[in-house]
Amino acid sequence: MRASRSAGRQKASQQSRHISGAEGLYESHEIQKILKDYLSRAISHPRGMPDNIVITVEKVTQKPIKVSLLPVLTIQCNSRREARKFLQAFLSDLGVSEKAVRKGIRIVTGSKAMRGASLIRSGSGVRVEPDKARGVRVSRFGIEKISQKDLSRELTRKGINTSTVKEAMTLASKVASCEGVTAELCVSDDPHYTTGYLASRKLGYVRIPHIKREGSMCGGRVFFIDEKAEVDRMTEYLEKIPVFAETEN
Ligand code: WAQ
Ligand code: MG
Question: Residues 151, 211: one domain?
Fold first, then answer.
């Protein structure tokens, strides 16, 4: 689902502002319910009322690849300054250069809302996604039924059992499973949602409170990728290959 609002007098198809988006991988009997759910999300987003909503349903014939659901952890963080320090320290540990980190933070806290994610080379800090306005939109990811239940139980215990967290964890698990991805940085574009995350195969899904100021319209995602990673192959995997995350038992 993609909801947007046209900027000024231009038509929605020309220059438009991203309001809300969502995607997933579902069984055919779930479609009706999901469509209703996506529609209500589109028209009740805190970023505003859209004037254009596009919902696409595609049949997926390829069997989903199974990947591990990342473990979740929330760090104690009380300010944006602290959040920035955590990011710099964690990303530097993962081998991301200071230049790349600075660029990544600038993108996720900037005012240009993208629909998708930016790809940044971990060493040089060069930005390489094919479409800079749109970014790479991760799609075709879901969570295996039993794991969904296990996860809900765990998140309930931690007081964070929301679809926002579950969807973000599922998306992050697909991204982390992509060859060439070092880490993902995410800041919600919801002005009232101030917890973001840093995710990687090595760290897991690390939630960072106070990553942005309450009321801010900024938000975005950055995937830090290997210096030599093949962008076309990664984009194909992230956008097209069906993936199911599951907990390891
Ligand atoms: N693929 C790539 N980028 C995306 C996608 C996607 N499928 N969906 C969203 N983005 C980008 C886009 O630039 C958005 O502006 C930005 O990410 C934020 O998207 O554990 O809700 O849907 O409590 O606002 C984090 C949860 C929630 C933290 C993240 O993201 C927690 C969230 P949003
Ligand atoms: Mg959002």
Answer: yes
Task: With a cut of 60, say whether residue 48 has pLDDT above it.
Answer: yes
- Tokens describing residue 178: 């992509």
What percentage of residues in the chain have a pLDDT greater than 90? 91
Residue type, 187: V
Domain match, 20 and 89 both: no
Identity (one letter) of the amino acid at 62?
Answer: Q
Q: Are residues 13 and 82 in the same domain?
A: no
Same-domain status, 22 and 79: no
**Average pLDDT of 178-186?**
98
For ligand 1, the distance from its centroid to the CA atom of residue 59, given in whole angstroms, is 24
Q: What is the mean pLDDT of residues 102-121?
A: 93
Q: How many CB atoms lie within 10 A of CB 154?
A: 14
Q: Is the CB of 166 under 6 A from ligand 1?
A: no
> Do residues 222 and 182 share a domain?
yes
- Centre of ligand 2 from the C-alpha of residue 22, in Å: 8
The pLDDT value recorded for residue 137 is 96
Q: Is 248 exposed, middle or buried (0-12, 13-18, 19+ CB in 10 A)?
A: exposed
DSSP state, 211?
A: S
Residue 49 sits in the same domain as residue 88: no
Average pLDDT, the chain: 94
What is the extent of the structural domain holding 216?
A: 65-246
pTM beyond 0.85: the answer is yes
What was the pLDDT predicted at 7?
A: 75
What is the residue with the minimal CA distance to atom 20 of ligand 1?
165
Select from 115, 151, 155, 175 the residue to mutate for testing ligand 1; criterion: most ligand atoms less than 8 Å from CB: 115
**What domain count does the chain have?**
2
